[in-house]
């Protein structure tokens, strides 16, 4: 079976679905391929900066229908429990990926996107056309392919991307809980070998998601023991975990998370979201970046089909330039903060500085968040 579209999007996560909705809104024929069924819980912090709200409104995405929490404050703590609380300049909202992805999927289908549940096995680019083959022996052709296949994929290996050649020591764990936690607060808490984000999503549910160094994690028998012996050494996290009841049968995990630099265009494919670059969770802004990257790629692809961008080379150069302009400094700040917090003495020094001079934390927040995205 062979299908043809103007654009094929590989991956139906936050970035892929946002791009599909954008492109279909401006009249571009889109096929989106996603290997999993909708909806599905995902390992994610589930906090989104309000910087994306104007763009979501332009896409006719009514976030309020999902009854998200409204988040206005950040609490940051080091592993010994020293903490500071500060107002977030733009604020944000909390919504589960289970609810958000399901909503976006329905919106994409309503817009006329063709969504195929299948696994992409190969992407070949030749003579200005892509040929995409799936595990169900489907062949799809398009002039543009957008890569939205997440943090790590078999496609990365097929493309021989640099980051995939390096072993990563990071493991992420996420679960939903019931318990008492302020709805207006997002917590970012450091512990030995990792970081944990805590915030509420819809239905008064607490999302707890943390990133752990595998060398530290593997010394323990299981997640429960690790959380008790390591994560809970931060008194803020101990208080939250002790007073909360997990709603999942077991936590979700994902391994081999890489924060190595990635190229925004590989073999002609425009990469968006985590496929193009992953910001450290302690910066709390990966979901907003995914949405923003989808907008950048979709705007340029639209301009390409309108004839305003006259060549693929120009399209790729413009995307490289805009990706770097919007995200390079944010990703760099994430890497710097991570290195600081990995060392207890440095993290304590940073805490002393931000407690005495709170504007320093505000500067860090500005460096890891963007301005409102106006279409």
Give a nutshell description of this structure.
This protein has 375 residues and is α/β, with parallel strands linked by helices.
Task: Walk me through what this model shows.
There is one protein chain. 34% of the residues lie in helices and 29% in strands. The chain has helices spanning 14-25, 53-58, 97-110, 154-158, 214-217, 223-229, 235-242, 286-305, 312-341, 344-356, 359-368; strands spanning 2-10, 30-34, 47-49, 69-77, 83-94, 114-117, 120-126, 129-134, 139-147, 170-178, 185-191, 194-201, 205-213, 245-246, 252-257, 265-266, 269-271. A hairpin with a 2-residue loop joins strand 16 and strand 17. The mean pLDDT is 89. The chain has one domain: 3-Layer(bba) Sandwich (FAD/NAD(P)-binding domain). It is built from 11 helices and 17 strands. The strands form 2 sheets. Strands 3, 4, 5, 10, 11, 12, 13, 14 and 15 form a 9-stranded mixed beta sheet that branches. The chain is α/β, with parallel strands linked by helices and 375 residues long.
């Amino acid at each position: 079976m062979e299908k043809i579209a103007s654009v094929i999007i590989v991956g139906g996560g936050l970035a892929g679905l946002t791009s599909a909705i954008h492109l279909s809104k401006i009249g571009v024929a889109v096929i989106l391929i996603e290997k999993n069924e909708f909806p599905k819980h995902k390992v994610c912090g589930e906090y989104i900066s309000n910087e994306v709200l104007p763009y979501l409104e332009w896409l006719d995405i009514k976030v309020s229908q999902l009854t998200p929490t409204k988040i206005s404050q950040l609490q940051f703590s080091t592993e010994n429990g020293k903490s500071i609380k500060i107002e977030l300049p733009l604020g944000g909202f909390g919504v589960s990926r289970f609810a958000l992805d399901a909503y976006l999927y329905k919106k994409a289908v309503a817009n006329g996107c063709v969504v195929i549940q299948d696994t992409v096995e190969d992407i070949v680019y030749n003579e200005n056309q892509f040929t995409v083959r799936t595990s169900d022996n489907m062949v799809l052709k398009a002039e543009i392919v957008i890569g939205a296949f997440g943090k790590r994929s078999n496609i990365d290996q097929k493309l021989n991307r640099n980051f995939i050649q390096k072993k990563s020591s990071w493991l992420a764990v996420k679960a939903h809980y019931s318990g008492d936690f302020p709805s207006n607060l997002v917590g970012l808490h450091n512990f030995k070998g990792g970081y944990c984000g805590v915030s509420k999503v819809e239905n008064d549910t607490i999302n707890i998601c943390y990133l752990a160094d595998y060398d530290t994690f593997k010394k323990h028998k299981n997640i429960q023991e690790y959380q008790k012996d390591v994560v809970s050494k931060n008194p803020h996290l101990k208080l939250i975990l002790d007073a909360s009841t997990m709603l999942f049968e077991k936590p979700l995990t994902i391994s081999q998370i890489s924060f190595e630099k990635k190229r925004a265009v590989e073999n002609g494919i425009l990469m968006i979201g985590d496929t193009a670059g992953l910001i450290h969770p302690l910066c709390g802004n990966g979901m907003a970046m995914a949405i923003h990257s989808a907008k950048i790629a979709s705007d340029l692809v639209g301009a390409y089909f309108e004839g305003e961008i006259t060549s693929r080379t120009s399209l790729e150069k413009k995307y490289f330039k805009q990706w770097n302009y919007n995200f390079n400094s944010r990703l760099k700040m994430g890497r710097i903060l991570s290195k600081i917090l990995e060392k207890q003495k440095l993290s304590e020094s940073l805490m002393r500085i931000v407690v005495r001079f709170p504007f320093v934390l505000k500067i860090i927040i500005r460096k890891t968040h963007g301005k409102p995205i106006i279409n």
